[in-house]
Write a structure and sequence with these properties.
about 80 residues
């Protein structure tokens, strides 16, 4: 994760990375949803949370701000 001040002193933005792999509650399933030609790149996402204070509370957006294109749609 990385934290950056918002312009004009209006709080903070915390950027983080994650995946959409299914960890199924026990052991990581590192092959779930992985395209064997692309590796796990098709599951990676970048998200952001914002806060007025570095100490929180942080509010995470409902959807990633960057994610892979939909290959089935020709993107």
């Amino acid at each position: 994760p990385t934290i950056h001040a918002l312009p004009g002193g209006h709080g903070w933005a915390l950027y983080y990375t994650g995946t959409r792999l299914d960890w199924n509650g026990t052991h990581p399933n590192c092959t779930a949803g992985v395209d064997h030609n692309q590796g796990d790149r098709t599951t990676r996402r970048i998200g952001v949370a914002t806060s007025a204070s570095l100490y929180g509370p942080w509010t995470r957006r409902d959807a990633p701000i960057f994610e892979p294109a939909d290959r089935t749609a020709g993107a």
